[in-house]
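cron nightly-structures :: item 1 of 1
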Amino acid sequence: MFQRELTPEDYIAMLRRRWLLIVILAVVGTPIAYGVSLWLPSVYKSTSLVMVEQPTVPENFVRPVANVNTNQRLVSMQQQILNQTRLEALIHQFGMYPQDIENHVPIEALAARLRAAIQVAPIRPPDDSESGNPPGFYVNVTMDNPRTAQDVCTTITSMFIQESSRRRQEQTEQTTQFLDQQIAEAKAKLDGQDAKLAAFQSRHLGSLPEEEPANLNVLTGLSSELDATTQAITHAQQDKSLAESMLMQQIAARRASRTGQNPETYGQELAALQTRLAGLQSRYTDDYPDVIKTKIEIEAIKKKMAESEQQNREAPNQAEKQSMEPVELIQLRSQIRSDEQTIAQRTKEQERIQAQIKNFQSYVQSTPAVGQEYKQLTRDHQTALDLYTSLLRKRSDAVMAAALETRQEGEQFRLINPASLPSTPSFPNRPLFAMGGFGGGLALGLGLGFLLEMRDTSLRTERDVELSLQLPVLAMVPTIKPSSRSKSTQPVDQTPAHSGVGVGTGA
């Protein structure tokens, strides 16, 4: 057997030689395949179309609570609907697989067979996107009885629609209940933070950070008020000292006029010292050396004047002396009493202001430490308040979403095409089987023909002879065709002429 590269002419020659075998197998394969399709059991497929309707209210106004994409929902619902219990109920409801039940086939196996016969196919969006939200889905049920297939498809489709509505409403209610529980806990935490903050504010009233500017302003006002009160006390003391000096001078002059003694020198000296003391006190404090020295000199003059008064004191009682005192002395004594009352009143006011200044200074000094703790409390309170407000807002959205689901204005499954009643079996497709038999027979014929050609060792062409003999060509005898005139007289050469074929000698 020799091998050589085949050309298109070789393949055409093969087809010419083996065409009968190829045609026979192609013709025979068609009825065989069709007969096989008649022998196979027929099954029918019922189909329903369910579309996913979007909410009538835009999501910008009411955000849906159940926001799971359609593919995930379909997978979850398919597992829930096609469980063992529901499939067994369907088998008993529609009386499916009666022979298998009589033969005591396990119900679990029948439920698995029914589950395999049910298919849920999402519709691919036109833009072929992978968003996970197809516009709808098909429910396909394949059974050996068309009516049973339609009934099962109708039931399964109704289960999907009811389960979708029930799940969305249940999820909305569970979300609302969960938010109610979270709101109650958040409110309890917020109330606790309110109580802590109120107790802290009550305990540190006046030292809170927001009160610091007011405290500083109050301190400024109290300082000004204290300065004014101090000046008023100083002036009252000066007025009292001057009035006392004048009173003592008047008394000394009066007594001198009675006894003939002249205390004018003491009075003048005392008046000069008191005037000097008033001038010093207006410029210096009481601890200044000149102020102390002047006070000592005044006390010495007063002591001398008191001794002189004691020596010149008369016997009449005080009532008679006062009745005999002139108006100037009475006015001076009244002025002294008024100055004393003013000094006492201003002194109390000064002590009150100093106490207030001390309190507000303590507030200002403790504000940084209090502010740190207060900042932590307010931060925790604000966090609790934000959480509580956010939960209230989410609960409001959940309530509106629940209202939409109750009124069936949210996302819903709508049945577009009810389950169909198949009139022809979906399997086997007999025309397709016939075409498959024809194609299979044709392919088989071509394969057998090619195999037979490969096993055939006949020499049909010059190239076959060259490859078979493997001898070099020594000469070539051209093909000689007899003329028309010599056809009748000369014998015809019966040996076929092969152009380019010669005789060679082997080594």
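cron nightly-structures :: done
The chain has a mean pLDDT of 76.
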